[in-house]
Amino acid sequence: MRRVLFIILAGCMGAVLITAIVASRQVYYEELLETTLSAISEKHASQTSQMIQEAVARPLALYSVGEPIVVPSTSMQVWLETYYRPFTGRQEVRLNSDAVASYLTELAPHLNTEPKNAQFSAENGVLIESVPAQNGQTLDIPASTHEILRALVHDQSTAPLVFSQREAEYSLGHLSSLGINALLARGTSNFTGSPASRKHNIRVGSAKFNNILVQPGEEFSFVDHLGTVDETTGYLPELVIKGDKVIPEYGGGLCQVSTTTFRAAILSGLPITERRPHSFPVQYYNPQGFDSTIYPGVVDLKFVNDTPGPILIQTSIEGNKLNFDFFGASDGRTTAIKGPVILEAPGDGSLKTNLVRTITYASGETKKDSFYSAYKSPSLFETIRNPLE
């Protein structure tokens, strides 16, 4: 004959229970053991029940980064549930882990943080993190539930919260591993004088291009990366050139973003495969002849990454100045631009301009390309605004 007795305290993703397990090879002893175990289980259950009720009668401090979070006893009362003991039918109290997990689920959004990529710049030709990368954290609800239950069962007034770490995607070390070692160029534009809704659209639109990685040999499409432009993606109505009219549409002002992208691509010495100037000169894109209009489904801005490594695009706004920084693998090429030169200016506001770019490669080979722009007179375009504005 052999008898084995286990007393188990289960305290994580199930209710805190005291369970008795008996193994015997002889049926003769079953009734005797059942009676004995019933008494033992009832005693431990009563003790545990009393201890749990005492534990939730005082505040519980949850520790994470920063100040502890104090859970008042009134909030912990919902973590208790009653149940009836086997054999005796006696009512006891136990902790409900689902209720604890539910509390943590509501708490999590206030504690979780998103990782933040580093912002980069160049000093004396060397890349640095002008804004260091920061890891994010996510509350581990099952593990934190376990810690809370364990603290209460052991009559403790504090419990740690458990987090999983989320690394930032881009840090200086990550860029180095990608072979990115230089600021290829910065494109800038100024949107001083823009209405509030236009400034809003510029902020929303430029954010979509922050930390985009363009692989070597890839043709970059501005419209593809921009995505849907409407109220659901955060844009406001503002003026756009459409046909022979200037009308309010969602996303008005996004050409400020495409123009700045174009300038960075030009200065980086990248091949431009699609670009169209605006229909008439727009003050926000001075100097005229250095702009690029876009309209999803109609016209795009495209360039090719012909450098030996990936290009990281980072965007920033300083006051009314929009910046696009292209970081990549330096292959020794240099870029010089002439213009934009005004070829014709009849006096009605129309213009014809030309921008000439000269790229000199490390081998000594040079390449020239020109970007011609013909702008109509603004007087040919009727401006229609919302009468409620």
Automatic annotation (TrEMBL):
Domain YoaR-like putative peptidoglycan binding residues, every copy: 49-157
Superkingdom of origin organism: Bacteria
InterPro entries associated with the record: Glycopeptide_resist_protein, Vancomycin_resist_VanW, YoaR-like_PG-bd
Protein name as annotated: YoaR-like putative peptidoglycan binding domain-containing protein
Lineage: Bacteria, Candidatus Yanofskyibacteriota
